[in-house]
Amino acid sequence: QVHLVQSGGGLVQAGGSLRISCAASGSTFSAHDMAWFRQTPGQARELVATISWSGDSTRYADSVLGRFTISRDNAKNTVYLQMNSLKPEDTATYYCARWGSVGYDSWGQGTQVIVST
């Protein structure tokens, strides 16, 4: 496993932008696909975006396609989620996660994003 520490997030008006980050400890970060999830109270955790170990391949949930961008800097052991054109329905706690051998095996502590109208 790896320790994932998130930063960023906060309160933003609808239409605004935020970037959240997830820094990983250890030397194996570049060998693993990464993802961002989000969750609201009483709801299941939703997969928002994924990125391959090399950064060459990304995938997005339909709800964020064209507005969010996942990226990574393997030299800094960090994955990012740039969120543009934010909507109130994007309000959630966001989590980064590392893909291990058979599933997501490490999770960040969560970062709250609140989008006001």
Order of helices and strands: EEEEEEEEEEE
Major sheet details: 7 strands, mixed
Number of distinct helices: 0
Structural class: mainly beta
Query: Looking at the chains present, what oligomeric state does this protein adopt?
Result: single chain
Contiguous runs where pLDDT drops below 50 for at least 5 residues: none
Specify the overall morphology: globular
| Number of separate strands | 11
Radius of gyration: 13 Å
What percent of residues are in strands? Answer: over 45%
Terminal Cα span: 39 Å
Q: Portion of residues in helices?
A: under 10%
Please tell me the overall pLDDT: 96
Which key features would you list for this structure?
7-stranded mixed β-sheet, mainly beta, 117 residues
Characterize the structure shown.
By secondary structure, this protein is mainly β. It is globular, with a radius of gyration of 13 Å. The N and C termini lie far apart (39 Å). Strands 2, 4, 5, 6, 9, 10 and 11 form a seven-stranded mixed β-sheet that branches. The protein has a four-stranded antiparallel β-sheet with strand order 1-3-8-7, with no helix packed on it. The chain has no helices and eleven strands. It has strands at residues 4-8, 10-13, 18-24, 34-39, 46-51, 58-60, 68-73, 78-83, 92-99, 104-107, 111-116.
Describe the secondary-structure layout.
Blueprint lengths: L3 E5 L1 E4 L4 E7 L9 E6 L6 E6 L6 E3 L7 E6 L4 E6 L8 E8 L4 E4 L3 E6 L1
Parallel strand pairs: 2-11
Antiparallel strand pairs: 1-3, 3-8, 4-5, 4-9, 5-6, 7-8, 9-10, 9-11
